[in-house]
Structure formats: structure tokens, C-alpha cells
Design a protein that fits this description.
The complex is a heterodimer of chains A (650) and B (99). Chain A is mainly alpha-helical. Chain A has 26 helices and 2 strands. In chain A, helix 14 (280-303) runs parallel beside helix 19. Chain B has one domain (4-88): Helix Hairpins, CATH 1.10.287.3510. Classes of the chains: A mainly alpha (650), B mainly alpha (99).
Chain lengths: 650, 99
């Protein structure tokens, strides 16, 4: 890679940052053209990224890793941190995903947010998010990564609570922010351990000497990094914020909570590969967390009636796949990133489609009041349909290549692990097929569970039997165009990147070359099993939600479905396990503070005050009394001198 | 003659002056008590100077006289002003500055 293109790397972060700063500083005066400035900044970043990528592809594979150091940031004794940009296949993969999907979502937002008077501010935050995410993936040290990490958290907070005039949205933003802080503590603690163990926090130092370190230390670092990744990527046990984050505008859900920000945890783990390889126990925990979240998200997704929350549960589940792959070691890193890229495309497409449906249905999100929309929203239905087939893993859509690779990799290994992880991955694929088909059929197929005024006739203004009045219409081209591009990616990206294992080889300079191991089951059997389960899930959903009428209110259901409807009681668990003990702790601390500390100091202050009041009584205003006190004082002084020095001297 | 007798006299004079200051209300009389105390101190200082064969005490006595003279001027001026304003020379009537 040439120096010229390497020195372009800082502009990847600077361009959207300048866009955000301009939009925020110029203020209302830029309301009329601000959104186009946002689109321009994002697109320009994509072009810069493309230039660097093309230059990288022209170079030899062993020449593709470069670091561009801009300045020295921290220079205190043993701690040396530079502001440096790590340009390698892994970071460039993320740069392309973030900027391409980001630019498409910027474009979509121009139309989606056109009626919002704060559209300019929205674009400023979107640009801020893109800048922070790019800093996260381009940083050459954990500390600089952490700056981007926090920036992403901030942008997420601002965007989830964008409509903060409605209280639940503001609460959801706060919830996401606070839960992310828990993960951030993990990253901070991991950096402290790295500094203590390796004497630095830049990637070259840490990853270069991780193999030689004590296994207990690397395990601790690995687990702390996992905690950080759990916070950002909404994995168990820090998953509860993602569903509520759907309170933000739909483009935000597409960009931040599907395609990019939640992938930061996967990026962190894959980037820290050498540390994890030196800590097999941490790897096992990562895989277990991934597998559990994969099932958790899938189960929750099956019961959600809110179209965005169902997609959020699906995101959680799909990122569980990536975490599972990242926990499998070098054999899984490339597949984790592969699935991340394809998922970024089809999930963003699905979210944009959901936004288009909401746009048509007066911002309703309840799928029980949708139905039969395919004819009215043809472009949305087709693009979402392609994304749906992609996430199901139907060949030859992109999800098939990426997810199937992870399932195969999960079956590699010895002992009980391949059987457990492989089975979970297989099962997850089947459940994914069920809930995604359920979402698609409830929205686009079946009987209409809404009426137009014409069909309803006079006297029946809808609502009498729970069927609302709606006037669905296809979205403008500014919204459908990004959906079409993302749908094309959902269809072809998997095949294009998988051909000749191109993508896996592309990532090899970073992830390392993985020895090929055969799964415990033959590959054809795994593929057949996967496709059978997917077909079964699809068929079940078709029977339930396309052939039979869908009730407009949630029907009575067994306990497990009722639990899944409330996210398997995740908030109750958090409240019982964390919030209530925390509350008791803070209350007792407050009590101790009041009764012991405050009471002591207040008592002292009161005593001084009372003494002063008594002393004031001596100031009677009678000169003779003052004279008497002076004389008395003199007497006391003489007495003291006589007692202590006069007597001692004689 | 024993020099210590001067000290006894000084103590008696000082006690008389102090008693006057504490017990009498009339500002002029109080003032005279103060003068008595100052001069008792002077007597003691001069006596000490004589006892130690050192003139420091005598010099100090001169300072006390000078300061006492200045004090008399200022003090009498204040007493006269207060008497004009309040028609009273009692020190107990001048208690307006208490809280």
C-alpha cells in the first residue's frame, strides 16, 4: 500500500466529524440544506474508503497492513500512545460496511425524516456516529479505540432519545447508555491489565506479546474484553437495552442497532484474536455467551408483535452467531466478519423495509394490525423479501454462505463442544427461519387487518373491532433506492465474497491462517440439516400466519410464549439481580452518610454554634465588665506562668 | 531601705486603681483609676530597674508616661463628647454597641 493512500486514513474520520460539527455549529440556518451536507460527508467518506481499499487490493497480501501515525497523544514515562490509524483488511472491511450502509441510510433518512423539524440535528448525530464508528475500527490502540467506542455510545444515546419529548424514548436512551457503561468498565479494566502486563495499549504491543503472557492474565483480559463486547453488542447478560433502543427513528435502528454499532463487540474480539488464543477458557466463555444469546434472541423474536422489536431480537441472535464464531478461534474469525458484513446488508435492508412499512401505516409497529401489504407496497415487499430469504440462509442468498460457514465451524472440534455449539447453531437457524417468516407473513401476506375508509364505509370508522383505518402507499424513491441497493447486497454479496474463499483469504493478514479441520459431521449432512430446519420453520410460520387468520390481539399462550413476549423477563431479572441490591446498597450508604458522617459534622457545627451563642452573652456592652474580664485574663496568665515556668525555674 | 517595699506599694496602688475601674461608674473616676494603675506600673518598672542595675525599666517608664499623656488627651476628649451627647458620664450608659 502506498503512503499517499495510507495518509488518507485520518480523513475517513475527519470528514464526517467536520460534517457533524458544521451541522451542529451552524444551527438552524442550515435547516434547508443540512441533510444534504450530511449525505455528502458520508458519501465522501465512502469514496475515500474506496480509494484506500482499491489501493490495498492492488498490493500484495503481505503488504496490506499499514499504520499511519498522526501525532503523539500520551507520552508519560512507560505509557506511549499515538494517534494512529490501523489500515488493514479487517478495518477496511468495516470502513466499507459502515460508509456504504451508512451513506444509504443517510439517503433514506432524507425522505424518512422530511417531516421532522429537527432533521438537521438528526443528520449531525448520524455523521457523528459514522465518525466515531470509523475511529473505533481504524484506531491502532485500545485507548484510541475506546474514544471511538465512547463516541459511538454517545451517538447511540443521542439518536435513541432523538424524540425525547416522549418520555419512554428518553428513558430508552438512558437505559442503553447506562448498560453500555457496564461494558465500558470491562474495556477500561482490560486496558489497565494490558498496561500492567504488556506495558502498552497499542495493538502491536499487546497482540505481539500476548502469546508469551501468563495464561491467567490473558484469560482475565479476554473475559474483560468479552464484558465490553457484551455491552456494545447486546449479548447476555447486557442485552436488555437493544429492544428498547428501537424507540429511536427507524434509520437509527438500521444503522446503529443492526449494521454497525452492535458489531463493535465482534470487531473488538476478532481484533484481539491473539489475546483470546492465549486464553482458551475465555474463548469457551465467548462461545457459550454467543450460543446462549443466539437462542435467547431467537426465542424472544418468535413472540414479538412489534416489527422493530422482532428485528432487534433477530439482531441479537445473529450477533450471537458472530460471537460464537469469534469464540471458536482462528477458524471462526473470518466467518464471524463474513456474517457480520452480509448481516449488515440484509438487516439494514430489513430495518429500512420496516421503516417503509411504518411510513405507510402511520408509524404503527404492531404486526397484528398489518397484513396483506405486499400488493400495496411492492418494492418494500420485494426488498424485504430478499432480505428475509438472506437471513434465513436460503441458497444462494448471502446469509446462506455466511451462516452456513459458522454452523460448519461450530461443528469443528473435539469432545462435547462441537455437538453442543453445532446443535445450538442449527437450532438457531431453524428458529430464525420461523420468526423471520412470521414477521414477513404477518406484514405482507394473509388477510388485511386494517381498513381504508372506503372499504370500511360510513359509520364504521375502523377501531370498532380493533382494525385501524390506514392508507398504505409506497415510499418515495429516496427511501426505496437504498432498500434496493441493500437488497442487491443481500442477494449477491455472499456469493461474491465466498467465491474461492476470497473474503477469508482477504482477512488472513489480520485473522491469521486457520488450519482446515473437518467437522464432526460431514458437510453435506450439516447443510441438509440446516436447510431442512429452515424449511420446517418457514412452513410452520406459513401455516400459522399466512394460511390461518392472525388475531389482532395477542391470543392466550403457554407460559414460555408469555415470557418471550416480555423479553424472557430480562428487565425483571436485571431489577432483581442488579437494581434492587444496588438500590439497597445506595440507600444504606445514604443512611450511613446521614446518620454517621453528616450527623458527626453537623453535631460539631452545632456545638460550635451553641458555644458561640453562649460566648456572645459575654458581650454585654458594659465597659466595666470587659475590664473585669481583662483583669481576670491577666490573672489567669500570671497564674499559668507561675505554675509552669516560674515554679519550674526555681 | 528594702527595695521590695516599693513593689508592695506598687501592688497596693495597682489594686486600688483596678478596684476603682471595676467599681466606679463615673467615667472621670474610672479614668483616674487607670492613671493610678499606670503609675503603679511605672513605680514597679523603676524599682525593677534599680534592683537589676539596668535602665531598661526606667526607659520603659518614660514610654508609659508619654503614652499615658496621649491617652489622657484622647480619653478626656471622648468623655467630654459623650457627656455632651448623652448628658451622662456613667460608663454603664455607653452600651449601645452590644448586639
Amino acid at each position: 500500500m502506498t503512503m499517499q493512500t495510507l495518509s488518507l486514513a485520518p480523513w475517513l474520520v475527519a470528514t464526517p466529524l467536520i460534517g457533524a460539527a458544521l451541522l451542529l455549529l451552524v444551527g438552524r440556518r442550515s435547516d434547508r440544506w443540512g441533510h444534504w451536507l450530511g449525505v455528502l460527508a458520508s458519501t465522501a467518506t465512502f469514496v475515500i474508503g474506496l480509494v484506500i481499499l482499491l489501493d490495498m487490493l492492488a498490493a500484495d497480501p503481505d503488504q496490506r497492513v499499514g499504520v499511519h501515525t498522526v501525532a503523539s497523544w500520551i507520552d508519560v514515562g512507560p505509557l506511549q500512545v499515538d494517534v494512529g490509524f490501523q489500515v488493514d483488511p479487517l478495518s477496511m472491511t468495516f470502513v466499507m460496511l459502515i460508509t456504504l450502509v451508512g451513506s444509504l441510510i443517510h439517503l433514506y433518512s432524507v425522505a424518512y425524516m422530511s417531516h421532522d423539524r429537527d432533521r438537521r440535528r438528526f443528520f449531525a448525530y448520524l455523521n457523528l456516529f459514522v465518525a466515531a464508528m470509523l475511529l473505533l475500527v481504524l484506531a491502532d490502540s485500545y485507548l484510541l479505540l475506546f474514544v471511538g467506542w465512547e463516541g459511538v455510545g454517545l451517538a447511540s444515546f443521542l439518536l435513541i432519545g432523538f424524540w425525547d419529548h416522549h418520555l419512554p424514548n428518553a428513558v430508552a436512551g438512558k437505559k442503553a447508555f447506562v448498560m453500555n457503561r457496564v461494558g465500558d468498565m470491562g474495556l477500561i479494566a482490560a486496558m489497565m491489565l494490558m498496561l500492567a502486563t504488556f506495558g502498552g495499549v497499542d495493538f502491536s504491543t499487546v497482540l505481539g506479546s500476548a502469546g508469551a503472557a501468563d495464561q491467567g492474565t490473558t484469560t482475565a483480559i479476554g473475559l474483560l474484553l468479552l464484558l465490553a463486547a457484551c455491552g456494545k453488542s447486546a449479548q447476555l447478560p447486557l442485552q436488555a437495552w437493544l429492544g428498547d433502543a428501537m424507540a429511536g427513528p427507524t434509520p437509527v435502528s438500521a444503522l446503529i442497532h443492526a449494521a454497525t454499532m452492535v458489531t463493535a463487540g465482534v470487531y473488538l474480539l476478532v481484533r484481539s484474536g491473539p489475546v483470546l488464543e492465549a486464553a482458551p477458557d475465555a474463548q469457551l466463555v465467548i462461545a457459550v455467551v454467543g450460543a446462549l444469546t443466539l437462542l435467547f434472541g431467537a426465542v424472544v423474536g418468535c413472540a414479538k408483535d412489534d416489527i422493530k422489536k422482532a428485528l432487534a431480537a433477530s439482531t441479537m441472535s445473529q450477533i450471537g452467531y458472530m460471537m460464537l464464531a469469534a469464540g471458536l478461534g482462528p477458524v471462526g474469525y473470518a466467518f464471524a466478519i463474513f456474517h457480520l458484513v452480509t448481516h449488515g446488508f440484509f438487516k439494514a435492508g430489513l430495518f429500512l423495509g420496516a421503516g417503509s412499512v411504518m411510513h405507510a401505516m402511520d408509524d404503527d409497529v404492531n404486526m397484528r394490525r398489518f397484513g396483506g401489504l405486499a400488493r400495496l407496497l411492492p418494492v418494500t415487499a420485494i426488498t424485504m423479501g430478499l432480505g428475509w430469504l438472506a437471513i434465513l440462509g436460503v441458497p444462494p442468498f448471502s446469509g446462506f454462505y455466511s451462516k452456513d460457514k459458522i454452523i460448519e465451524a461450530a461443528f469443528v472440534g473435539e469432545g462435547w463442544r462441537p455437538w453442543v455449539f453445532g446443535t445450538v447453531a442449527l437450532l438457531g437457524a431453524g428458529i430464525t427461519a420461523y420468526y423471520m417468516s412470521r414477521l414477513f407473513f404477518m406484514t405482507f401476506m394473509g388477510r388485511r387487518r386494517w381498513v381504508t375508509e372506503l372499504a370500511g364505509g360510513a359509520g364504521r370508522e375502523g377501531g370498532s373491532d380493533g382494525t385501524p383505518v390506514r392508507h398504505p402507499h409506497e415510499s418515495p424513491w429516496l427511501m426505496t433506492l437504498p432498500m434496493i441497493v441493500l437488497a442487491v447486497g443481500s442477494v449477491g454479496l455472499g456469493f461474491a465474497l465466498n467465491a474461492g474463499e476470497r473474503f477469508v483469504h482477504f482477512l488472513e493478514p489480520v485473522t491469521g491462517h486457520a488450519e482446515h479441520h473437518d467437522p464432526v459431521l460431514p458437510i453435506w449432512l450439516i447443510i441438509t440439516l440446516t436447510l431442512t430446519l429452515v424449511a420446517a420453520g418457514l412452513a410452520l410460520a406459513f401455516v400459522q400466519y399466512a394460511m390461518r387468520p392472525v388475531p389482532t390481539t395477542p391470543p392466550p399462550a403457554p407460559a414460555v410464549v408469555r415470557a418471550a413476549r416480555v423479553d424472557l423477563h430480562q428487565d425483571d431479572v436485571n431489577e432483581a439481580v442488579v437494581m434492587l441490591p444496588g438500590k439497597v446498597l445506595t440507600r444504606s450508604l445514604v443512611f450511613a452518610d446521614r446518620t454517621a458522617v453528616d450527623a458527626g459534622w453537623l453535631g460539631l457545627a452545632g456545638g460550635v454554634g451553641r458555644f458561640g451563642t453562649w460566648l456572645r452573652g459575654l458581650q454585654s456592652g458594659y465597659v466595666r465588665q470587659y475590664a473585669a474580664m481583662t483583669l481576670g485574663g491577666l490573672g489567669v496568665i500570671v497564674l499559668v506562668i507561675w505554675l509552669f515556668s516560674g515554679q519550674g525555674a526555681s | 531601705m528594702d527595695l521590695v517595699n516599693y513593689l508592695y506599694l506598687a501592688s497596693i496602688l495597682f489594686a486600688l486603681g483596678a478596684t476603682t475601674v471595676l467599681l466606679r461608674r463615673n467615667a472621670i473616676v474610672v479614668f483616674m483609676g487607670i492613671e493610678l494603675m499606670l503609675n503603679a506600673t511605672n513605680l514597679a518598672l523603676v524599682t525593677f530597674a534599680r534592683m537589676h542595675g539596668d535602665i531598661t525599666g526606667q526607659v520603659l517608664a518614660f514610654f508609659v508616661m508619654v503614652v499615658a499623656a496621649a491617652e489622657v488627651v484622647v480619653g478626656l476628649a471622648i468623655i467630654v463628647t459623650i457627656f455632651r451627647a448623652r448628658r451622662s458620664a456613667s460608663v454603664d450608659d455607653v452600651n449601645l454597641l452590644k448586639s
